[in-house]
Amino acid sequence: xxxxxxxxxxxxxxxxxxxxxxxxxxxxxxxxxxxxxxxxxxxxxxxxxxxxxxxxxxxxxxxxxxxxxxxxxxxxxxxxxxxxxxxxxxxxxxxxxxxxxxxxxxxxxxxxxxxxxxxxxxxxxxxxxxxxxxxxxxxxxxxxxxxxxxxxxxxxxxxxxxxxxxxxxxxxxxxxxxxxxxxxxxxxxxxxxxxxxxxxxxxxxxxxxxxxxxxx
Length: 216
Prior knowledge:
mainly alpha
């Protein structure tokens, strides 16, 4: 998102045009940032060093229950209550439960769960949500469907790119750029033609857990 915004802004400013709309991030009002299972002050991220800090959509039921939710950081202040100032870790787990189930996080205090019950109920709901996604992911890994989609959509993307270049090039003003427009047009056209002949690169499916997508 940041790269797209920077590129669009730089092109528009350099050539005094509005050919590229500036992308804007859309953030949901609730559950916009799910916290790490190991540190409630940090967001859940697939780049975090510890696998235990996040839930991945390919995690097994056993991993979700035993390695992730049950070992999530909590506290020993008794029955679960929702208070980010006093109980940040427990409140973050309640936020995650609410994000998965669609219930209101503060209302969960009325259930009188212990922290263990919260973790077990959270694991159950996360696994319920992810089971069909995990099954579909594993099914795709066993076929060449993804490669076919990449090839088909790659052709579509190249056609769109060629049309976009036809829109962009007239806005490249020689007086504002050292680029020779005619030469640039020739090089771009030749590059797109070469890429079309080569076709899309083969994409291998992820096997390293660190490369697999996180839940949120």
